[in-house]
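Morning, I've got a small favour to ask if you have a moment. I've been staring at a protein lately and its backbone has me curious. You're getting the sequence in one-letter code plus the fold written as tokens. I've dropped the whole record in just underneath, so have a look:
=====
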Amino acid sequence: MMNPVAGVAIRAVASAVPTRVARTAGYTYLTPDERSRFQKATGIAERRIVHAGQCASDLCMVAAQTALERLGWARDSIGALVLITQTGDQPVPATSIGIQHKLGLAQTCLAFDVNLGCSSYPYGLAIMTSLMRTLGITRSLLLIGDVSSLTCAENDKSAWPLFGDAGSATALELDDGAAPMYFDLMSDGEGKEAIIIRSGGLASRHPPGNGPVELEADRDGVERRPDNLILRGADIFGFAISKVPPSIQRVLAAAGKPSDQIDFLVLHQANKMINDTIAKKTGFGADKLPTSIERFGNTSSASIPVTLCSNAERFADRETAVVTCGFGVGLSWGSAVLTLPAGVVIPCVESDHVYA
């Protein structure tokens, strides 16, 4: 097991979603029976989709502004900003650098991007807390968000009705009295084909071309552009129910806490069937399993903070012990045991704002 990180406190968790609603009932590529089965399996009734020109950075900016306003932190007190996303504004430069400037943070604030998806929250907390402790950074912002809807072909029944868009911000501060965070972080690149966008990288075997984009039929018969996301649901299901429960059990053992001493299990919102199976295998009842997938869909990297914020009232009045677990694209998965002080989770905000 990895060493726990002590002395870093979570001061605020904020999330932002677009106002545009896409409902499962309105998805015309599915028959009524298919829509019913899809909603029963995934739990998704609706999700949020960005408006034209709206980026993951815009949603993360809104979340960051919300957190900073709640805390009243001076902008020049932020020493680090890390953005985790798979849908940055452009390949070069890092999107985090632009956000640092737009937020009005000092030039002494280090900023960089991390390309990671569904496991982003435990990975991001591990990166940020260890960075803060090592370099003595007093305050930081962990931004996580994706606009995954822009990567999906609209005729793709496996992906298009699944993904919603969102951004988040977690504000962290050095505090010698803060409870330790425990981490279990794993990866397996052998399974990378389970969720993949094959084209677009400059060094890719499928580099971007200058000519017209041609549709290609995958083995599932769906025609996609080379830069569309491919999702193999059966592979993800098998991976999630086999690899995720042991990770949760390992991190609980490291923290010395059985499941009955944990207030909430906050999972990446992959789909209802997967998450119900994981909860059952790890001894968590439905009362300890907050969700957001029914309203916001699978919000990829941001799904754990979105789930926290869409259930903010459950974290308002008391300190809570929480297990978070993200799993998916990579393949990558990770779990963390956290202590959330009362009132740090802020309800989700809606925004269509685009920052110039």
About this structure: Helices lie at 32-42, 56-71, 95-102, 120-135, 233-255, 272-282, 293-296, 303-310.
